[in-house]
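Ticket #4471: structure export looks truncated?
Reporter: QA, pipeline team
Priority: medium

Steps to reproduce: submit the single chain below to the structure queue and open the exported record.
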Amino acid sequence: MRLRFLLLLTVIACSASQATLAQTENQRAFLLVAAPGMQDPTFSKTVVLAVRADDGGPIGLILNRPSTVELRSLYPDRAELTARHDVVFLGGPVEPDALLFAFRSQTSPPKGLLVADDLYISGFSEVLDQLLKHPENAGQQRFFVGFSGWASGQLEDEIAQGGWYVLAFDARTMFDMNPLTLYDKMLERAVAPRIEASRTQVRLPIARAY
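Actual output as written to the record:
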């Protein structure tokens, strides 16, 4: 799975500059908000950034599972991290030893998966090296161990069965909102159309399945 993910990043990196506009218009990235009845403990009460890949099923990162581990403890010999206190998040059950990072960049990285607009995900050491050279951008960088993944059609089935709400993605969800209160806020936003629909007797979709 890790090899597939890294190969996927490489392929997309080559075509990202040509496909950026189309990917954004097609809402390539979206948020998954676990329904209150989610039985899988891995995803219970989670908010997941999901990205539709060009090959295979979507991949994702859990946004509201901060660990107690700081990035600098994983790289004790890196002087660039001495003054940083980045918390590592638990991105998902796939490849739990793999470090991935989401970041905003005005220029396309040499190896990275475009999420939307200026947001990318990567897992390559050379990209990490460049990120750590810019501590002033730490607020626009987030680090994860592991990621989430679905086979083709699997996520659509889970959405259809009521396991997830789907919301539009905004990078502020990742970088500006408190991960400890993120689920409650996103769940409130997700169910609001249903509450309004019950009041007006008009059927409104809670979210779209991608």
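Status: closed, not a bug. The export was complete when the record was re-opened. Leaving a note from the reviewer for reference: The chain is about 30% helix and 25% strand.
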